[in-house]
Design goal:
This protein is an alpha+beta fold. It has 11 helices and 12 strands. The protein has a 7-stranded antiparallel beta sheet, sandwiched between helices.
Length: 349
């Protein structure tokens, strides 16, 4: 939606108006404004409470937001010109992660002082207020995650109810193994709505699975007030591993989370992961990926009249055709399109 005129010609923001390539599909609920008060109001109503002011009253300001909203995760890419300072939050229903791709910001969340930039992101838990001062130019991706979704996954993994709100350490190191994995999943979710002609991306299996992956990564990989409970040594029995395998095979077409598998088997997610690694040489989620590839190949080997590689990939939760084709080729030493063509030719004989 267009809420204000284009910026004045003197405002050097032309390069900011188009998001980087990886965010080109975040096209819902777009607004742009050269009025800071209007921007505060819209961001407060649509995302998190905002109260910001310009570093100097005469400084020019411009902001544009591209966003996509899903059932558990929302994304908003904010491009901004003008140095501002102020506060963000608090929220009671969402966690907010700020990933900066252009510029820097100084933040204080509770007792933590952060230099946020390309190597460090900030995580704001419900109830937190972040005091922020930004550089003149910035490009920021805000990732909001549902409190209910995170709390449900946490309790499923622990196999017990929790009494306190899940609270994360405010600083996320993006060069860590976890930080890189989390960023990759965020990029996948940014790209997914534009892939393979999916008309309703928020309802696609692959989008739901990526949301599960982001929630799982955050609970498993970033420090929080329940982290110590995930480091207790325990192991699930072989029958519980088999129960998880049977559940995965019976529900492979559905988006699944590690918490759901823990709930089915009656053990913690850490116990289940340790046992899968010991008995199967892979994680439960990698086993799920392998099962989906097997089922996709089985369908390509016995195709229906309307079957296409894209439709088969989408049915088994692969929303990104290029990644599906690459994984399939690594596993079966041929492209999925080759499998389909060969089987169709054989069926005509």
């Amino acid at each position: 939606m267009q809420l204000s005129p284009k910026p004045p010609a003197s405002c050097p923001i032309a390069a900011l108006l188009t998001p980087p390539a990886q965010f080109r599909f975040l096209t819902r609920n777009v607004f742009e404004s050269s009025n800071l008060e209007e921007t505060n109001d819209i961001l407060s109503r649509g995302w998190f409470p905002h109260r910001a002011q310009l570093a100097h009253p005469r400084e020019s300001f411009y902001c544009k937001v591209n966003s996509s909203q899903f059932d558990k995760v929302s994304l908003a890419f904010v491009t901004k010109h003008g140095r501002v300072s102020g506060q963000v939050g608090p929220s009671t229903s969402t966690y907010l992660i700020r990933l900066l791709f252009d510029g820097e910001s100084e933040e204080r969340i509770g007792e933590s002082l952060l230099e946020v930039g390309k190597e460090r992101a900030a995580i704001q838990s419900p109830g937190d207020i972040a005091w922020i001062r930004t550089s003149e130019r910035s490009g920021l991706l805000g990732v909001t995650l549902s409190v209910d979704a995170l709390q449900t996954e946490l309790e499923s993994r622990l196999q017990r109810p929790t009494n306190a709100m899940l609270r994360f350490s405010p600083s996320m190191e993006l060069r860590s193994q976890f930080g890189k994995a989390f960023t990759r999943q965020v990029f996948r979710l940014c790209e997914e709505p534009g892939m393979d002609g999916i008309e309703h991306p928020a309802e696609s299996k692959s989008v739901t699975q990526i949301q599960h992956n982001l929630i799982s990564l955050l609970i498993e990989g970033h420090r929080h007030n329940y982290t110590r409970l995930f480091h207790r040594d325990s192991i699930a029995g072989p029958w519980q591993v088999r129960a998880a395998e049977e559940f995965i095979r019976a529900h492979a077409e559905q988006p699944l989370s590690l918490g759901e598998l823990a709930m089915v088997t009656g053990v913690s997610s850490r116990s289940l992961q340790s046992s899968f690694q010991k008995h199967r040489g892979c994680s439960p989620m990698q086993f799920l990926q392998n099962v989906r590839l097997e089922l996709a190949r089985a369908e390509l080997m016995s195709p229906g009249e309307e079957s296409t590689v894209t439709s088969v990939a989408a049915r088994w939760g692969f929303g990104h055709f290029g990644r599906f084709a690459a994984d399939y080729r690594r596993r079966y030493s041929e492209a999925p399109s080759v499998t389909l063509r060969r089987r169709r030719a054989q069926n005509k004989l």
